[in-house]
């Protein structure tokens, strides 16, 4: 039998007041109002491709030039974007609640770094970062904010181009600068079929096990393992509150609260 979902802000405020350990799980929807495309739905296309089709090791193996164009485009969008009211409300809530001795942690599936740029400190990025690279040869991971990331990608990656552009030769794609390695770099993100970092997963599990309130913001809750986080919390009887523009069938039945609407509006109200 499904629970009755509450949409009453006052009732949520009462629970929030009593909570001492809050975990917020975020997805692409939290950055939508910063102009960053989500993965699914009408915005989830890059050229004629579904964005998720670019996020696989197979796509990178087949066509590293195309996948690097996609990631170069997204890096540039993120660098030009700013945190929105939802990121800011979460950063402010962390400041306020931690100053009262309470715990407040964000587990994000996003790779855009906007939570940290908004001033949040307790952020676990479970799918990696657009602003990090990893060498496929020596595995070196490092921060990279270069724009463009390499000369050959300058003016490439536009989502509007439908005619195939000539592939960039692999030796002109981003290359490792560690000693004489020169291996091909890839974005340090987690693609489909790849495991998440073990230490990161362990940290996420311990945060989820300890929380007494869970907020789920702007995620379709279809990608595992993150899709299992809210169910695991609800199973312990802990309230889960969703903030989303749409109904999310995969978690709807386990919710205690549901606030429909753009989270740049609903979150600041809920966390005020
Ligand atoms: C708003 C809004 C506004 C809009 N306000 N809301 C168990 C069962 C079945 C399959 C699997 C399973 N375990 C593992 C798998 C395989 C796979 C998986 O989950 N597949 C499913 C799709 C079926 N998982 C994996 O492969 C993971 N690896 C793994 O588990 O390893 C072990 C293993 C492997 C294989 C088999 C079994 C075990 C890795 C997953 C990596 C996901 N990577 C990506 C790309 C990251 C890099 C990059 O960014 O390029 O992560 S895919 C993409 O999806 C990205 C996102 O983080 C992730 C989730 O998307 P998200 O954030 O939910 O975005 P959207 O677009 O889906 O939703 C946006 C939401 O916002 C919507 O609800 C809107 O309504 C809402 N919204 N505007 C509020 N203003
Ligand atoms: Zn290397």
> How much beta, percentage-wise?
15-25%
From N to C, what is the helix and strand string?
Answer: HEHEEHHHHEHEEEEHEHEHEH
Mean pLDDT metric: 96
Shape: elongated
Radius of gyration: 19 Å
Bound ligands: ligand BJW, zinc ion
Residue share in helix: 25-40%
- The low-confidence runs, each spanning 5 or more residues with pLDDT under 50, are none
The assigned structural class equals alpha/beta
The biggest sheet, with number of strands, parallel, antiparallel or mixed sense and barrel status, is: 6 strands, parallel
Q: Termini separation (Å)? A: 33 Å
Count of strand segments = 11
What is the count of DSSP helices, taking H or I runs of 4+ residues? Answer: 11
Provide structural commentary.
This protein is of the alpha/beta class and 272 residues long. Helices cover 35% and strands 18% of the residues. The chain contains 11 helices and 11 strands. The chain has helices at 9-18, 29-32, 51-54, 57-62, 64-80, 85-99, 114-118, 198-210, 229-235, 249-252, 263-271, and strands at residues 21-26, 45-46, 49-50, 103-108, 123-125, 128-135, 141-143, 185-189, 213-217, 240-244, 257-260. It has a 6-stranded parallel beta sheet with strand order 5-4-1-9-10-11, sandwiched between helices. A 3-stranded antiparallel beta sheet has the order 7-6-8. β10, α10 and β11 (257-260) form a beta-alpha-beta unit. α6 (85-99) packs parallel to α11. The mean pLDDT is 96. Zinc ion (ZN) binds next to loops. Belongs to the sirtuin family. Class III subfamily. This is NAD-dependent protein deacylase. It is an enzyme of class 2 (transferase).
């Amino acid at each position: 039998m499904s629970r009755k979902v509450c949409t009453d802000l006052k009732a949520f405020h009462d629970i929030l007041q009593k909570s001492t350990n809050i975990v917020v799980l975020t997805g692409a929807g939290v950055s939508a109002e910063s102009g960053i495309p989500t993965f699914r739905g009408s915005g989830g296309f890059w050229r004629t491709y579904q964005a998720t089709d670019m996020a696989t090791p197979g796509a990178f193996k087949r066509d590293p030039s195309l996948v690097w164009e996609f990631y170069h485009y997204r890096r540039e969008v993120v660098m030009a974007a700013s945190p929105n009211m939802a990121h800011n409300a979460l950063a402010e809530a962390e400041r306020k609640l931690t100053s009262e001795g309470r715990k407040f942690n964000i587990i994000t599936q996003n790779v855009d770094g906007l939570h940290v740029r908004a001033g949040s400190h307790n952020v676990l990025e479970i799918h990696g970062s657009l602003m990090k690279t990893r060498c496929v040869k020596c595995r070196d991971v490092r921060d990279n904010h270069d724009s463009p990331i390499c000369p050959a990608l300058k003016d490439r990656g536009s989502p509007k181009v439908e005619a195939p552009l000539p592939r960039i030769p692999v030796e002109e794609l981003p290359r490792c600068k560690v000693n004489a390695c020169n291996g091909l770099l890839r974005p340090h993100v987690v693609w489909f079929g790849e495991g998440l970092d073990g230490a990161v997963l362990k940290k996420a599990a311990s945060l989820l096990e300890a929380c007494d309130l869970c907020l789920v913001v702007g995620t379709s809750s279809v990608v595992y393992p993150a899709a299992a986080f809210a169910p695991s919390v609800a199973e312990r009887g802990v309230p889960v509150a969703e903030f989303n523009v749409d109904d999310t069938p995969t978690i709807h039945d386990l919710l205690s609260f549901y606030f429909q609407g753009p989270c740049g509006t609903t979150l600041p109200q809920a966390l005020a």
